[in-house]
Amino acid sequence: MAAKPPSKSSGPSPAPVAKQIAELLDPKRPGRVLTELRRRHHERLGSFTMDILRERGREPMMIVQGEIVVRAKDARRAARVLGRQFTVELVVGDDPARLARLRANIGAKALADAVRTLRAHCIHASPNGVAAFGMRSKAGVTPEPASSSLPPIGAPNAGKGTHVVVIDTGMAAAAKSRTDKLLAGIAINAVNTDPLTAINKRIHGVDLLDAAAGHGTFVAGIVRQVAPKCRITMIRALDSDGVGTELSVRNAIIAAAHLKPHVINMSFGAESLDNQPPVALSDAVAQAAAISPDTVLVAAAGNSPDSVRTWPATLPGVISVAGLTAAGVPSSWSKFGSWINVSAVGEGVVSGYVPGTESATFDQSPDTWAGTDPIAVWIGTSFATPRVAGAIAAAVASGVTPKVALANLVAAGTPVADWGVALAI
User: Which pTM was predicted?
Assistant: First the structure.
């Protein structure tokens, strides 16, 4: 293994970092949190119903109950193959339609069998999966109060004239009131506002932070630390529990591409049935490449210590980002493998957060953030990814294209087996 690069991140207190690493590596925690997330998505009005596919030897996979995604041109044939229990619905938003949903009132195992049947008939099909923040919403790792201030990463004028789109949980309305101006100028509206406590209010009647409240705000803050002058557009595709259907994520990726940004940041992902590329995400990335060929897409590899591929990070045209420690060495909790393109610091990451109090459902020792400029320390490839996005934006500001900027970063990095090229950002 090649020598590791030094890190430029400042070090928060080791106690919260150690707690978060232990949570990520706890083999029992994912099952507990998955069960809670599924329950929350059964009880919520107006939301999709989540199901969990459990197969021997694999991590449980979150899917939309009873939904299969196929290409629109294959929809009629797929319906004939599967029979009358499935209804067909074209996915709106494209003209002509590109995708279709097949729906039936069946369980996760039967749905997986149906998808495999379609694939045996040479029909590209996949469950309508549920993408999660950092691929490991199911581990439920929460932020902790930061003992240090926001670390300076980029030069004060880095990123001037560049544009980064962040697809995530949205922006907290309170971000507009920050006196440190970390998130100044980011448009916040009814469509992209992170509701922070909406799910807990609806289910439990309490004003406590949801499982992934503030995730998008935190991610945007990292981009801004690396490229302080870049323009950021936030598109909300995940709810405040940090989950969203692959179809909703697909629409967000296409919408982002139409903005012709320099970088699209995707701090989310999911594994897939039989390691096959999901139909909706494959279509989204292909469309994004056609709409805005100069844009670089970066995505979190995921937060489980194995080499199972995640999506959209593994798709051609997407840069997959694994996690490093603050010292620049491979993290014990990060995804790894030959499919990883780059890696960056993903633990002990400090960024802007949101005011509020955590729920004991996801953190047995709930923390509270107050004041106008709350900050937190968090862990995950979700937070390695925006460091890369910000570094690309900072390099673009010097006059190169996004893809040349990425190539220059990679050339300056250090190859690390199974962690791609480690970047010192």
Answer: 0.94
